[in-house]
Write a structure and sequence with these properties.
mainly alpha
């Protein structure tokens, strides 16, 4: 990957709750994959099978919406956590707990993301700035 493309992706990723959307999408995909598992592995299909496919499909969709429409992240993340918890009953105990945990963690990350937060500075960088400010000020 060229340096320009990597920088452009990093800038795109910084303007949205990337990890929250990605984890929610992965949680929905994992639950959908466990639905397609062999019958020896399936524990519970639930609610005539439709909700078992509908809830993780909506989780996957909400994760993508968080990535590509971060302005509505609060609604998407609240809906995502409710759908993730709903898969406990409808989809093999939430994809054998893995998809349920990924979905809940991703929704919480997306809900807590702040778009206008200043970039974090390391302790070393803050100390360097404090030394520079102390050296620049005239002493009496």
């Amino acid at each position: 990957m060229p340096a320009g493309a990597r920088r452009a992706f990093r800038d795109w990723r910084a303007r949205r709750p990337f990890w929250g959307g990605l984890l929610l999408t992965l949680g929905g995909a994992e639950i959908l994959l466990t639905q397609k598992a062999s019958l020896k592995v399936i524990l519970h299909v639930g609610m005539q099978g439709l909700a078992g496919y509908l809830l993780p499909g909506l989780m996957l969709l909400l994760g993508l919406l968080i990535l590509f429409n971060p302005a509505q992240r609060l609604f998407y993340s609240l809906t995502g956590v409710l759908l993730s918890l709903g898969t406990w009953l409808t989809s093999n105990l939430g994809g054998f707990f893995v998809g349920l945990l990924l979905g809940c963690a991703g929704s919480c990350l997306a809900f807590g993301w702040l778009p206008d937060q200043a970039p974090r500075r390391s302790r070393r960088q803050r100390a360097k700035e404090a030394r520079a400010a102390g050296a620049a000020s005239p002493s009496d």
